[in-house]
Amino acid sequence: MVPCYNEAKRLDCEAFATALRIDSNLEFVFVNDGSNDETSDVLAGMRTRGADRVHVLELAQNTGKAEAVRQGVLQAFELGAEYIGYWDADLATPLACICAFVRELNARKVSMVMGSRVRMMGRHIHRRAMRHYIGRGFATLAAFSLGFPVYDTQCGAKLFRATDEFRQAFSSPFESNWTFDVELLMRLKTAGNTNHTFDIEQECVEYPLPQWVDAPGSKLNITQYPGILLDLAKLLSWRLFH
Asked: Which terminus of the chain, N or C, has less C-beta within 10 A?
């Protein structure tokens, strides 16, 4: 699923159409999160081209990325998907990686694959220096709050099996918006602690992306960082007192 807020000028309709042609099992759920530009019209055109493999969920008002993702995931469950993922609308992570994620799920016999923006030789990760270093600091705090090692919680590309554990994890609204990915992992960890059948460190893996581009027009800017730190502080408090 793809959350969209004022993405009319950034949605690459041809890239989505090409992905549908290449993979006959692929479907897209777009969630228009109360956009006030032409996003609705662009999505309507994509739905016409994609017929029954493109679904559009229109939210009456802007709810934020966390709730848009949650609503889209729940819609995918209702559609009977075997695998469900969420992908940023700017396609910073190429859609070709979806097939790689599915292969990784099956080869590793795990429940979730998370894209990880690891800068190393042979990988083309283009990220502004300031966001990279702030992101590394955030990742360190996120790993501490979760209590297990994770390199990149915030990459907007994730794929998981449509199991009861994930349905339950998305069943109620997230308390955080920008850091909902961390909260999701915390919910999955809690579920495993409760039923002893889901070990998040065994069921979830990170996949170093072959390519990721810091696309212009990101909704995340420096004014959001205080709120992000507050969200993370709440998650840290949860871990310390539970």
From this structure: C
Q: Quick: pLDDT tens for 74-125.
A: 999 999 999 999 999 999 999 999 999 999 999 999 999 999 998 888 888 8
Helix (H, G, I), strand (E, B) or coil at 104: helix
Residue 103 tokens, joined:
């292969």
Answering whether pTM is above 0.85, one says yes
CA distances from 17 to 9, 30, 53, 101, 210 (A): 16, 13, 10, 19, 22
Strand order in the sheet with 28-33: 2-4, 28-33, 54-59
What tokens appear for 121 in the block? Answer: 């030789």
The residue among 181, 136, 214, 166 whose CA lies nearest residue 3 is 181
Cβ proximity of 138 and 232 under 8 Å: yes
The fold of the 2-240 domain, in CATH, is: Spore Coat Polysaccharide Biosynthesis Protein SpsA; Chain A (3.90.550)
Give the CA distances from residue 208 to residues 146, 181, 217, in Å, rounded to whole numbers and listed in that order: 20, 17, 24
Structure tokens at 104: 């990784």
Please write the tens of the pLDDT for every residue from 135-192: 677 777 778 778 888 999 989 999 999 999 999 999 999 988 878 999 999 999 988 7
Q: What is the C-alpha to C-alpha distance for residues 2 and 29, in angstroms, rounded to an integer?
A: 6
Domain ranges of the chain: 2-240
